[in-house]
Structures are given as structure tokens and as C-alpha cells.
Design brief:
Length: about 290
């Protein structure tokens, strides 16, 4: 695979701020939003559209009722596992993901910053009450037995559901205030990441030796800002993924290969066993020297 030796050297030096995007989860069967050229496969509903009409919320929850169940059944792939081993080997200082699937933690990664939140919960826009998504899903299904159990999965737990089924959906109300403006507890398109979260990641970029981006097109500023900050600080940046990546002409290394095999090859070169639950930093220390 092209660029693996260079990537291994980049990773071996450690001190990494790692940012992951949808591309690291596609091997788990979760589609991403963009084609290889960076254009969108689907147009997601924005936060403003979600709040604007009851019909929009019916559409969102009809599709999510089906898609979330498929999405939730996804398992971490070898890319997630390899990255957890790199972290366990002391090479990753800070792990940030734009994904909302929770697969990094399930693969064994620690202290993951979920930049856009997680689909594990829903939240009421009116009163701020949070509820576990599994409980909400039970209520959603009980109110809407007409919805199918299978459909074509789209990004972030969306699914392709017939329009006529969307129109009759009953949206579960908030358990506290009974409003029907319950949304996934994630940063939807049209929303902004909380300033304090951004500031914390910027401080992490300042402390790191280099930035490694895995599976992100970097089309949205929520992730690209960290690459820009690293470049401004004259820190090395490496991008790994199959599609077009914003700013690739400005960085130190671009590896256009599938993430699972690539990260596995890096771990192999560094002597990190993917089958071992816990990896000691000392396993890599001799090679770093």
C-alpha cells in the first residue's frame, strides 16, 4: 500500500492529535455523506428545518426509527481497533471524532471527544430533558407500528423510507414537558459545536506534535479548523482516506488507501498486536528511539 511506510514513521514519533470522520466507520457498514470527489450523496436535514415544522420532524423520526436500529447494530472494524491500539501504545495523545456512532469507545479507545455528540441520547429542545435513545426508540416504535423494520441505510442512522409512511408518524413527546421538539443529542447540520468544546480541542492541538486525520473530507469547518491551526503552528499534518480531502495540497503527507488495512499495517510495523486487549507504551518506546 502506498504511503504506509511514511505514515508509520509519522505515527511512530507520537504526540498525535487524531481527528476521525465518517470514512473510518464505512468498513462497519455505516455510509458516509460524501462521494470520493467530496460531493454529497444525500442532503441532511438541518436543525432549522427540523424545528420549522411538525412535518419535518415526522419525516426525520420516520426515517430514523428504521435507520437507527441498523446503525446501532454496527460493530467496530479493524480501523477502530488499530487506532485504539495506537492510543494504548502511547502514540495518540488526543482522539477527536466527528462521528456519532460510539464505535471508537466500543473498540477500546479511551477519553474520546465526540465533537458532534452521540446518537445514544435524545434531548428536548424546549426544556433540555435528555432521554436514552433506546427508550425513545421503544416509544417511537410503539406509536408507529406501520413503519418497516428494514430500509436502505444512509449516513448517521438515516434511512430511505417511503414518503407516504412519513406523513402519518406520531412523534413521541418529551417525558417532562410533553413538547414534540425532541431531537437527537448531536450537533445537526446548521448548528455549531459549543465554543468551550472547540477551545478545548484547540488547546490540545497546541500541545500535540502533529495532527493525523483519518477518514474525513474536512469539508466542514468543525474539523478543518484544527488542521488550519496545526498548519499555522507549523506542525506536521497527515491525511488518510480514499476521497478528496480539503487542504491536502498544504499538508505533509496524504495516504489515499482504505483505513482498516492501512492502520493495521501501521500497527504491524510498530509491533502492536490488534488481538491484545491492553498495549503498553513501552512496546513502542524502543522503536521510537
Amino acid at each position: 500500500m502506498s504511503g504506509v511506510a511514511e505514515l508509520t514513521d509519522f505515527v511512530r514519533a507520537g504526540g498525535l492529535f487524531v481527528l476521525t470522520g465518517a470514512g473510518i466507520s464505512t468498513e462497519s457498514g455505516i455510509p458516509d455523506y460524501r462521494r470520493p470527489d467530496g460531493t454529497r450523496r444525500t442532503v441532511p436535514m438541518t436543525y432549522q428545518q427540523f424545528l420549522a415544522t411538525h412535518e419535518a420532524r415526522q419525516r426525520y423520526w420516520a426515517r430514523s426509527a428504521v435507520g437507527w436500529e441498523i446503525f446501532d447494530a454496527a460493530e467496530p472494524n479493524v480501523g477502530h481497533v488499530a487506532l485504539a491500539r495506537l492510543q494504548g501504545g502511547g502514540l495518540v495523545d488526543h482522539l477527536v471524532t466527528q462521528n456519532v456512532d460510539g464505535l471508537h469507545a466500543r473498540a477500546g479507545a479511551r477519553d474520546v471527544t465526540e465533537l458532534h455528540g452521540s446518537l445514544e441520547h435524545v434531548v428536548c429542545v424546549a426544556c433540555g430533558t435528555r432521554e436514552g435513545r433506546r427508550g425513545f426508540q421503544v416509544r417511537l416504535r410503539e406509536l408507529n407500528p406501520q413503519l418497516p423494520t428494514q430500509a436502505r441505510l444512509l449516513a448517521d442512522g438515516d434511512a430511505d423510507v417511503a414518503v407516504e409512511l412519513e406523513r402519518g408518524v406520531i412523534v413521541p413527546a418529551c417525558l417532562r414537558c410533553t413538547a414534540t421538539t425532541v431531537k437527537p443529542d448531536v450537533v445537526m447540520f446548521g448548528e455549531s459545536v459549543a465554543p468551550e468544546v472547540v477551545e478545548a480541542q484547540m488547546r490540545a492541538v497546541e500541545r500535540c506534535r502533529g495532527v493525523l486525520v483519518l477518514g474525513s473530507s474536512l469539508k466542514v469547518m468543525s474539523g478543518y479548523r484544527f488542521v488550519l491551526a496545526a498548519l499555522k503552528q507549523q506542525k506536521p499534518v497527515a491525511l488518510v482516506g480514499l476521497g478528496a480531502m480539503r487542504g491536502e495540497e498544504r499538508v505533509d503527507l496524504v495516504v489515499r488507501e482504505p483505513l482498516g488495512p492501512t492502520l493495521t499495517a501501521v500497527c504491524d510495523a510498530l509491533g502492536l498486536d490488534l488481538a491484545t486487549p491492553d498495549v503498553s507504551a513501552s512496546n513502542v518506546g524502543a522503536q521510537k528511539g
